[in-house]
Hints:
Elements: H1 10-38, H2 51-83, H3 90-112, H4 126-148, H5 157-176, H6 190-224, H7 231-245, H8 260-272, H9 274-287, H10 292-297, H11 301-320, H12 324-330, H13 334-364, H14 371-404, H15 409-412, H16 417-447
Helix pairs in contact: 1-2, 1-3, 1-13, 1-16, 2-3, 2-5, 2-6, 2-13, 3-4, 4-5, 5-6, 6-7, 6-13, 7-9, 9-11, 11-13, 13-14, 14-16
Amino acid sequence: MLAFTRKPNSAALAFIIAGSVWFVVGTIYGLFSAIHLVSPEFFDNIPALVFGRTRAIHVNTVLYGFVGSLLIGLGMYYTPALLKRRIWSEQLGWLSFMFWTVTVLSGPITFSMGMSQGREYTEYLWIFDVSLVLAVLTMVVNMVMTILRRKENLLYVSVWYFTATFLWVGGSYFLGNVMWNPSTGALPGILDSIFHWFWGHVLPGLLLTPMAVGVAYFVIPRITRTPLYSHTLSILGFWTLVVFYSHIGGHHIVQAPMPNWLKMISAVDSMFMFLPVIIVIVNLWMTWRGKGGRIFGDPAGKWIALGLFWYLIVGAQGSLQSLPEMQVITHFNNWTVGHAHIAILGFSGFLAIGGLWHILPMITRRQLYSKKLVEVQFGLVMIGLTGFFIVLTIAGLIQGESWYNGEVIYRVLPELDAYMVLRAALGMFIIFGAFIGLYNVIMTIKKGKPIDSVEHN
Length: 457
């Protein structure tokens, strides 16, 4: 095995660098998709850039590549640190990185060639599904063995969230992606929609959410230099997340001919999902009570704080829009797209980036190259995402109300032109923020001042 694969925290750093790269790639493909909504014929002579291909690349690269890779890298650092033990096998961590990255990289390559399984959030070809599952299973082994060999008796809640993520995903990815049917990755009829949206919500809810919350629980007490407000609340939030979240995917197909009992479970559990959201937010807000200056004065702190704010908005929206009466207006239009953006970039993305700027100096033993660039990146992404949310919410309400009142789709489209132009323009803020973040990561690794040679502050 190559010597660098045995260096402590090298696999975690590899995930973090990859996540920073995928942020750039994913947002660029998002811009390609946005351009299509302004000028549908713009890329007509370039098959690899038609909307049906660029959107799949954008969504999967952001979900698994940007947010997923960053959060995994952060967890691979803080889990052993909290257990006061090096990760069980650095080489196995690199194997997880290889399998995960092969899957993410396959997206821009195969999707641009028109090769996918054609199910939203489950587009990866079967062989790359296998690669992702292998990444998850190797991570399970690594984390469980690290826990068994720990020196710290108490399992802090961040360890619970990070390790459980891979246990949950290891079981659910196989089901949601219908991996026992490699030729199509799908089932016939309405049954496929049920399996499909089981994974469609487990992906943000039991892959990204627990890792993002784990980062917040790790970073906030460190920035405020205070103990966590309530360990009991943190465990309650953990168990309510898994109890309620695994059943809510059906609210995406409430209008479909699926069993009424499943619709009821999906709607009820969706409403109860606001409980773990409130528990996490209250617990962390109480932890930093009276320490707001430290939170908002820290390069990572403001990312975490705003990420929790987005979590509150996402939780409220997600519960309410699961109700059939509200779905009549908000489903199948840009309202849902706006909700998805604040869920992935606003909540889990902000927490991932905040964790990045807090943990990167700890891994590299170097100060951040530029705290000013962190501030600039925060401003750009915040402007872009807030604008996205407002613009897409308004566009969605225009669509929903028009359709509800009997207007046909093609007559509504001209009313959306200005909003689609704004969407594309606002996306540029996020792209610039992604480039600035990648530059700051690279320069921190290469030219950041060694922490040991700098006075402690």
